[in-house]
From TrEMBL:
KW Protein biosynthesis (keyword) present: yes
Record keyword Endoplasmic reticulum present: no
Pfam family, one: RRF
Function: Responsible for the release of ribosomes from messenger RNA at the termination of protein biosynthesis. May increase the efficiency of translation by recycling ribosomes from one round of translation to another.
Family that this chain belongs to: Belongs to the RRF family.
Domain Ribosome recycling factor as annotated: residue spans: 21-184
Main localization of the protein described in the UniProt heading: cytoplasm
Gene (name only): frr
Protein name: Ribosome-recycling factor
Length: 186
């Protein structure tokens, strides 16, 4: 393993942490309906938990309503129950074969709770990035101990890892600022 390998590994893991944060932020609703809101809802399908988008067609009926059309008619009640039991605070209603899922408007208090949730997700991502930096620096120290690289190379490598960490944290802060602005916009 070389300094370049350690840096590449750290960079890849930091990018994955940022992608995970993006996915987590997409789950946080902003008052507008989007089908991605239901991506993490699991439905009991022949005894197996299955993502809702694999048992039904998700569409936007209007700006505040998601339409869920089950592929099998008998799945309607199960899908409706799964959406109701999810922690999204949604109240679906069945109309014929279509399940309508209205997204309620957010109150000011609820928006502030969402911002706190987003900030905690961001802090978790920053902790993950810092742990990756620590792991990379330990790998560099081990390379010096094994006499695979010089102390100067280790110091340069640690500086590069710190630059990667700083860039990742700036990216996380940008994502958080965008999401906070999106949540607070009425």
């Amino acid at each position: 393993m070389s300094v370049a390998d350690v840096k590449k590994n750290a960079q890849d893991r930091m990018a994955k942490s940022i992608e995970t944060l993006k996915g987590d932020l997409a789950k946080v609703r902003t008052g507008r309906a989007h089908t991605g809101l239901l991506d993490h809802v699991m439905v009991e399908y022949y005894g197996n938990p299955t993502p809702i988008n694999q048992v039904a067609n998700l569409t936007l009926i209007d700006a505040r309503t998601i339409g869920v059309a089950p592929f099998e008619k008998k799945m309607g009640a199960t899908i409706e129950k799964a959406i109701r039991d999810s922690d999204l605070g949604l109240n679906p209603s069945t109309q014929g074969d279509m399940i309508r899922v209205p997204t309620p408007a957010l109150t000011e208090e609820r928006r502030k709770e969402m911002v706190k949730l987003v900030k905690s997700e961001g802090e978790d991502a920053k902790v993950a990035v810092r742990n990756i930096r620590r792991d990379a620096n330990e790998s560099l120290k081990k390379l010096v101990k094994d006499k695979a690289i010089s102390e100067d190379d280790e110091r340069r490598g640690a500086d590069d890892v710190q630059k990667l960490t700083d860039k990742a944290i700036v990216d996380i802060d940008k994502l958080l600022a965008e999401k906070e602005k999106e949540i607070m916009t009425v």
